[in-house]
């Protein structure tokens, strides 16, 4: 059997040495039985030995041996194809591992310097650091570790670390040898301020790759392109395109290289109503925009505001210092741009300085003024980055005016105009001009990711379920009208875009978020639960709120899994401890608190009121699953999510896959996926989405839509509020004309038409969701 070009549904598997290609191959019959059309694999190229994720690519020339090599991948693809499944692969174009032991290209650059044929692979500023690459990898200051260094077989070694030596330097005394290299070894802490190569976000272990260079693109994509052309790979997920110098140019080159043969989606994070660039040659995004919409439509906006009040009273100034999301995000942006991204802003200042030095009209801008202008403009970019067009809509005149307020002297504030013009490409098109524009956009995306996703999301926590990539914690709720408008738009513009609820990067799985989201319908119950556990002392109230809410969503006390997730949250927040400046006393107090409280006390059954929420959590879980699986786009299931799946932030959500027992969620998933596989035309056609409106006293509690007039989805929204208001009563839903059968039980029938209303109390009599199919005749 040959899979179709566009998937009807994909299933993501996390490959790692404990779950290689052979294990994925054994899972194929299960995936085919669920009804997906494609298996989606995490990165498959060579990576750092032992890597559990594969994003630390070391060699683009080979499929990862630890997973079974190319033979293993081809065997998996062959088995998948025999079961009617295609293969989608995660492609990592932006970065590689920065360890010269494994990265052959970087090793040659460090050995041969800027004349190496591989030097063009990386964004290295050879004009900094006296023409050397700064390698901030030493466990201590050079003076502290020098005595442990040794030269063996033409290689410099320090414990497990290895560094290539420049030809002819092997026999030099150590001090002279170190000075003679094309790199300078330094204490790892210098990475924050002194780095002179582009990295992935703030991770110095991952070095950026210049795929905008045609030769670099060809070298780094030859294996994947060959596997696409051989029919082994049918689709590509592009990791972090915002890190590239020219995302559109890259995607165009990729389309040409693959002959347009594969379904391609990009991990593009859209902010608010930001659209995906219409001229990108892709099927759409990986689906975080859909996650925001699906999660949001199940949030009670009134209760979310009430919960915010409870949060402000409980956490006070310990967390977000006032309870305003916008202020929290702005403070986080300043913190990241002035601390973690100092090396990136310094690189931009150097480039801008060179541009200004070559232009008589710009020579008097002081470096500090350029740095200030760069920082002030970066924190005012409201989306992840600018692209080829539309930059003026992002870096607005208002943003420039706000940036100028940081200057005491108006004449010095003119540096803002220069930096803005450079970032928008308005001052010229020379190599340095192009370099600045690209690096500004790349740094902007890193700042947004680190300040919002990895800092502010952990500082502002009234409703943790809203704190997901692409989400808006300041406005967690989405109205049904907004959801319908979104779904109608992607059905028209991006019918083959991806949709997700859980991924390898979500901070909490969809089913954990469902449990947390229900708390917005009962803020008083949540406040009472916090009072019940107040006897367990916490290091600070913000931590207590975050940890208990996480535990409530997780459902089962498990200090072994909750502990690392809570520790990661406090380190990311950076309020009392951090990854680079850990406070062992505070972190020990965190561990003791989790072990004594959230990791021990079953909060979901701690009281009658909490236990009574279980049916409403179930309604939320099933409702979100059904909406995601039937809305416009190509749904992806993350490994294990065909059943109830509760997982926390990585590495908890990246554990090796194992088939689990079926439950009622599995039955729903299987019914929808088989329907999508058997009737793809129902779900993939543009203009195939029709909102359906209920009428009656509880109409707002029903979200319903039809697909191509053949399938109807109807789910219960805010079921706790519905129950408190007296249930469905006489609320009705008019189905499209014809006879409709219940596809979940295969027994019930309903009649549609303008003069025939279906009572929602009857439609939702057996379960809080309904999936109907048009019957013949």
Radius of gyration: 27 Å
Poorly predicted tracts of residues? none
Number of helical segments with 4 or more residues: 29
List how many beta strands DSSP finds: 27
Biggest beta-sheet profile: 8 strands, parallel
Structural class: alpha/beta
Which bin fits the share of residues in helices?
40-55%
Give the overall pLDDT as a whole number: 95
Broad shape:
globular
- Distance, first to last CA: 32 Å
Reading side by side through the largest sheet, how are the strands ordered? 16-15-14-5-2-1-18-17
Quote the beta fraction: 5-15%
How would you describe this protein?
There is one protein chain. This protein is an alpha/beta fold. The chain is built from 29 helices and 27 strands. The strands form seven sheets. An eight-stranded parallel β-sheet has the order 16-15-14-5-2-1-18-17. Strands 19-21-22-27-24-25 form a six-stranded antiparallel β-sheet, with helices on one face. Strand 14, helix 8 and strand 15 form a beta-alpha-beta unit. Helix 7 (214-229) packs across helix 8, helix 17 crosses helix 22 (559-573) and helix 25 (614-630) runs parallel beside helix 26 (664-678). The chain starts with 9 loop residues before the first strand and ends with a strand. The model has no long low-confidence stretch (mean pLDDT 95).
């Amino acid at each position: 059997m040959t899979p179709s070009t566009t998937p009807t549904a994909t299933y993501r598997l996390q490959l790692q040495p404990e779950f290689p290609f052979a294990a994925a191959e054994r899972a194929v019959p299960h995936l085919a039985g669920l009804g997906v059309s494609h298996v989606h694999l995490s990165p498959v190229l060579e990576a750092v030995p032992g890597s559990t994720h594969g994003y630390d690519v070391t060699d683009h020339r080979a499929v990862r041996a630890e997973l079974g090599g190319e033979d293993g991948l081809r065997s998996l693809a062959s088995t998948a194809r025999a079961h009617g499944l295609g293969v989608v692969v995660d492609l990592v174009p932006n970065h590689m591992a920065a360890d010269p032991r494994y990265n052959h290209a970087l090793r040659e650059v460090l050995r041969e310097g800027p004349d190496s044929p591989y030097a063009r692979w990386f964004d290295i500023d050879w004009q900094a650091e006296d023409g050397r690459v700064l390698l901030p990898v030493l466990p201590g200051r050079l003076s502290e570790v020098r005595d442990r260094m040794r030269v063996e077989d033409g290689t410099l070694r320090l414990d497990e670390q290895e560094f290539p030596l420049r030809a002819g330097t092997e026999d030099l005394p150590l001090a002279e040898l170190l000075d003679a290299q094309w790199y300078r070894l330094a204490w790892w802490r210098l990475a924050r301020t002194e780095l002179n190569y582009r990295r992935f976000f703030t991770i110095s272990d991952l070095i950026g790759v210049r795929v905008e260079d045609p030769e670099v693109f060809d070298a780094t994509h030859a294996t994947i392109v060959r596997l696409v052309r051989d029919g082994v790979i049918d689709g590509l997920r592009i990791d972090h395109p915002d890190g590239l110098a020219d995302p559109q140019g890259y995607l165009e080159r990729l389309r040409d290289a693959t002959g347009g043969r594969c379904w391609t989606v990009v991990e593009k994070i859209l902010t608010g109503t930001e659209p995906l660039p219409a001229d990108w040659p892709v099927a759409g995004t990986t689906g975080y925009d859909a996650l925001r919409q699906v999660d949001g439509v199940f949030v009670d906006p009134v209760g979310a505001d009430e919960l915010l009040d409870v949060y402000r009273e409980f956490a006070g100034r310990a967390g977000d210092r006032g309870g305003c999301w916008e202020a929290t995000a702005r403070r986080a942006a300043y913190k990241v741009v002035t601390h973690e991204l100092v090396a990136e802003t310094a690189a931009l200042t150097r480039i801008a300085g060179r541009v200004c030095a070559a232009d008589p009209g710009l020579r008097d801008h002081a470096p500090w003024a350029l740095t200030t202008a760069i920082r002030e403009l970066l924190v005012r970019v409201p989306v992840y980055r600018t692209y080829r067009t539309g930059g003026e809509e992002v870096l607005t005149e208002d943003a420039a005016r706000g940036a100028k307020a940081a200057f005491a002297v108006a004449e010095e504030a003119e540096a803002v105009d220069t930096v803005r013009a450079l970032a928008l490409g308005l001052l010229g098109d020379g190599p340095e001009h192009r370099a600045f524009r690209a690096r500004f956009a790349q740094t902007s995306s890193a700042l947004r990711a680190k300040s919002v996703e990895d800092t502010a999301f952990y500082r502002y926590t009234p409703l943790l379920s809203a704190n997901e990539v692409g989400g808006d914690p300041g406005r967690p709720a989405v109205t049904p009208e907004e959801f319908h408008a979104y779904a109608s738009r992607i059905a028209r513009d991006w019918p083959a875009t991806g949709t997700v609820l859980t991924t390898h990067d979500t901070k909490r799985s969809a089913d954990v978020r469902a449990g947390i989201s229900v708390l917005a319908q009962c803020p008083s119950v949540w406040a009472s639960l916090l009072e019940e556990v107040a006897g367990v002392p916490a290091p600070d109230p913000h931590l207590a709120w975050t940890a208990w809410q996480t535990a409530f969503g997780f459902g089962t006390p498990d200090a072994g899994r909750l502990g690392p997730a809570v520790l990661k949250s406090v380190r990311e927040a950076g309020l009392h401890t951090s990854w680079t400046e850990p406070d062992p006393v505070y972190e020990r107090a965190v561990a003791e608190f989790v072990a004594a409280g959230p990791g021990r006390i079953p909060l979901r059954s701690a009281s009658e009121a909490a236990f009574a929420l279980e049916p409403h959590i179930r309604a939320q879980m099933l409702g979100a699953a059904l909406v995601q699986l039937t809305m416009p786009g190509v749904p992806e299931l993350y490994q294990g999510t065909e059943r109830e799946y509760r997982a926390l932030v990585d590495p908890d959500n990246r554990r090796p896959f194992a088939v689990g027992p079926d439950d009622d969620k599995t039955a729903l998933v299987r019914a929808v996926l088989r329907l999508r596989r058997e009737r793809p035309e129902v779900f993939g056609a543009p203009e195939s989405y029709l909102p359906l409106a209920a009428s009656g006293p509880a109409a707002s509690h029903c979200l319903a839509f039809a697909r191509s007039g053949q399938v109807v989805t109807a789910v219960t929204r805010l079921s706790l509020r519905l129950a408190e208001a007296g249930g469905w009563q006489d609320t009705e839903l008019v189905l499209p004309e014809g006879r409709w059968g219940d596809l979940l039980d295969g027994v019930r029938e309903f009649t549609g038409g303008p003069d025939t209303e279906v009572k929602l109390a009857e439609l939702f009599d057996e379960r809080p969701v309904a999936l109907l199919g048009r019957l013949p005749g």
